[in-house]
Amino acid sequence: MTRKELFKNTLRKSVHAWKLINELPLSDDESLMLRHFMDQPGFLDLHWRMFVPAIKGQGTEEQKQKWLPLANKMQIIGCYAQTELGHGSNVQGLETTATFDPQTDQFILHSPTQTSSKWWPGGLGKVSTHAVIYARLITDGKDHGVHGFIVQLRNMDDHSPLPGITIGDIGVKFGNGAYNSMDNGFLMFDKFCIPRDQMLMRLSKVTREGKYVPSDVPRQLMYGTMVSVRQTIVSNASIAMARAVCIATRYSAVRRQFGSQNGGIETQVIDYKTQQNRLFPLLASAYAFRFVGEWLKWLYTDVTQRLEASDFATLPEAHACTAGLKSMTTSATSDGIEECRKLCGGHGYLWCSGLPELFAVYVPACTYEGDNVVLQLQVARFLMKTVSQLGSGKAPAGTTAYMGRAKHLLQCRSSIRKAEDWLNPAMVLETFEARALRMAVSCANNLSKFENQEQGFSELLADLVEAAIAHCQLIVVSKFIVKLEGEIKGKGVKNQLKNLCYIYALHLIHKHLGDFLSTNSITSEQASLANHQLRSLYTQVRPNAVALVDAFDYTDHYLGSVLGRYDGNVYPKLFEEALKDPLNDTVVPDGYHEYIRPLIKQHLRSARL
Ligand SMILES: CCCCCCCCCC/C=C\CCCCCCCCCC(=O)SCCNC(=O)CCNC(=O)[C@H](O)C(C)(C)COP(=O)(O)OP(=O)(O)OC[C@H]1O[C@@H](n2cnc3c(N)ncnc32)[C@H](O)[C@@H]1OP(=O)(O)O
Ligand SMILES: Cc1cc2nc3c(=O)[nH]c(=O)nc-3n(C[C@H](O)[C@H](O)[C@H](O)COP(=O)(O)OP(=O)(O)OC[C@H]3O[C@@H](n4cnc5c(N)ncnc54)[C@H](O)[C@@H]3O)c2cc1C
């Protein structure tokens, strides 16, 4: 499809989905499922996941009563317009202004520079009638920082932009199809006025007289919508990883190369240890991310209930966990999808493998909802704060509880003696805890050598990100182990999940061996025992690998991959797909008479001479 056709088709699908949701009707969970089967980014994502939650989280009761019924019935369509041409990560650096005018009781929204243009918001370019806009609030000449406002963008009769608003689509993005179904947009305000009651005022307020009343709760609650979406992105990472792994695993069982003496049957590529060493950790990651996603959902629900009761104690941890796990899982999944493409050899590069589009549509997850490095630095700040409070009497809780055992974890030596010890959950956990704590403490020690903490932080950014990743990996491993300790129906299933859990943990040890050795969390002998155990786990997973991806229960239609077909009938179907290509509509291609024939004839003539 052309961009225009793709966009229009996505509108058609979205509206059909909305009709089904209402007519059947579907529950919230079923609607989410439908979103997955729709399988295309579109304006509904931003309306439901960001616009509505922003009003719910930051609006007053009156604002919710006014706007939510309209939004819930989709009588208005909204998006989340925060990022600008000049600033995305640095939210405090946004330039759009919202100046209160006491004469008219309105805010005047203005884009003072080109870099202040809103740039990127999904659904903004062509669809949304409304947006939650983030702008600097100015009253009486004083800048109070960034706040949210509900703004109507387009005329409700003919969809034209309201006077004072310039709006459009930012253009084609990475890949063919992929995220191009979405109208990511730009927007400029030219002294555009909105009534005062359209500032989202649950947190801070502006009175009729123009007095600014700051929030009596943490101002970071304004970032709540991002926290909520980051949490869902972790579960989505598992879905995308599982999809790629399903394709690569099934195809690896079908594909044969080498290994036959005298013309016998060749080896299935899945039997090569190198293939297993690249594929099975990704299979394990798909399961690991699912379990940590379930746990994160619980954490998010818990913090939301606490916030409603004005208990803000766990907000920093919820922020650190959602930011860090969003970052870690999306980076691993993007890399994993690309690895799956390579695991499928040349055919993985074909569009009909399903992998190129999956990669193109998935990879912006490393950037949207917070650049992955910027988010890990938030985790690092949280860790440095936690380390600095050790010994102050305030015991670290939740995912940093292990830091409370700093004395032991800083000096303990791993008691792994034989390969099977690497299947001991306590030993594995302690290894990850020791590595994470030692990396964090080492950063904190290095930081303390700087007179200026911020300057030290800047200098040590790369080390801080590594320490943050180590902490996030510990969370994933520990939540997988907790899952195994819970009720799992069927001993066989439990055994398979156990194998995957230890593959996940041991492959991380192998991948980040430098960290584990340099922090003395393990010795090189213990590292080689881990490798030995890993190889043995691969052998145990091998006979069940295809069943473990069938368990994701993805239909062929959803996978959209010739290589990942359930029936394994890959080669005839590759031919079928090739023959569908428009280039094969004619035997002699368009352009032959114009370019190829004259070229060949010229050679023939010169040959005769
Ligand atoms: C084959 C075809 C396949 C097709 C498949 C299709 C399937 C597609 C899959 C996808 C499916 C669904 C996807 C989901 C849909 C959603 C779509 C998403 C669209 C994206 C939307 C966006 O991107 S919106 C914009 C997001 N922007 C950002 O994330 C900006 C990042 N920046 C920030 O968050 C902040 O600026 C910052 C955290 C980096 C820094 O903030 P600030 O400068 O204010 O703060 P400080 O650093 O000074 O910190 C101050 C203290 O505040 C704490 N803090 C910061 N943030 C928070 C928070 N959120 N909550 C709580 N506390 C917070 C910070 O830690 C500091 O604390 P102290 O140190 O204690 O002071
Ligand atoms: C597909 C897609 C959809 C989007 N949808 C929306 C939307 O609906 N609404 C919306 O408001 N926004 C949206 N965005 C914007 C998105 O949220 C931002 O692009 C994202 O937050 C990253 O910000 P940035 O572009 O400013 O990156 P930058 O911050 O400019 O990042 C550039 C580089 O600088 C590095 N960097 C930046 N700051 C630091 C630092 N402090 N320390 C170390 N390194 C740093 C980053 O790691 C990165 O390598 C979308 C983006 C994409 C790609």
TrEMBL record:
UniProt subcellular location: Peroxisome
Gene3D superfamilies for the chain: Acyl-CoA dehydrogenase/oxidase, N-terminal domain (1.10.540.10), Butyryl-CoA Dehydrogenase, subunit A, domain 2 (2.40.110.10), Butyryl-CoA Dehydrogenase, subunit A, domain 3 (1.20.140.10)
GO terms under cellular component: peroxisome
GO MF term set: acyl-CoA oxidase activity; FAD binding; fatty acid binding
Keywords noted in UniProt: FAD, Fatty acid metabolism, Flavoprotein, Lipid metabolism, Oxidoreductase, Peroxisome
Active site residues of this protein: 369 (proton acceptor)
Domain Acyl-coenzyme A oxidase N-terminal positions: 1-77
Domain Acyl-CoA oxidase C-terminal: 424-601
Highest taxon of source: Eukaryota
A GO BP entry: lipid homeostasis
Principal location listed in the UniProt entry: other
Positions contributing to FAD binding: 83, 122
Pfam families, A to Z: ACOX, ACOX_C_alpha1, Acyl-CoA_ox_N
Domain Acyl-CoA oxidase C-alpha1 stretches: 223-384
InterPro entries noted in UniProt: ACOX_C_alpha1, Acyl-CoA_ox_N, Acyl-CoA_Oxase/DH_mid-dom_sf, Acyl-CoA_oxidase, Acyl-CoA_oxidase_C, AcylCo_DH-like_C, AcylCoA_DH/ox_N_sf, AcylCoA_DH/oxidase_NM_dom_sf
Needed co-factor(s): FAD
Transmembrane segments: none
Family label: Belongs to the acyl-CoA oxidase family.
Stated name of the protein: Acyl-coenzyme A oxidase
Organism: Raphanus sativus
Lineage: Eukaryota, Viridiplantae, Streptophyta, Embryophyta, Tracheophyta
